[in-house]
Specification:
Elements (H helix, E strand, L loop, with lengths): L6 E2 L3 E9 L3 E8 L4 E8 L1 H4 L2 H15 L15
Antiparallel strand pairs: 1-2, 2-3, 3-4
């Protein structure tokens, strides 16, 4: 679990955990460049070391980034 105040990707400051699932945790964070709040989904350590799983996760993010619908979250960034 990430600690409040941790900076991710030299851009996002972790504020608090929002939820946790079997494979990932979701955090509320502040985008330091654009001064807005965002949600960040972070794979749990047991999955982040599996290259195949990371590639699938990245593919899902890229697919979601191509969608535009009021009931689907926007994807602004992806990283490791």
């Amino acid at each position: 679990m990430l600690k409040s105040g941790k900076i991710i990707g030299e851009r996002y400051e972790i504020i608090d955990i929002v939820g946790s699932g079997g494979m990932a945790d979701v955090y509320k964070a502040k985008d330091q460049r654009l001064s807005r709040f965002v949600a960040i989904k972070v794979l749990k350590p047991e999955y982040s070391s599996d290259r195949s799983f990371v590639n699938k996760f990245r593919g899902e993010a890229q697919s979601a980034a191509g969608l535009s619908h009021p009931n689907i979250v926007n994807v602004y960034d992806v990283g490791e």
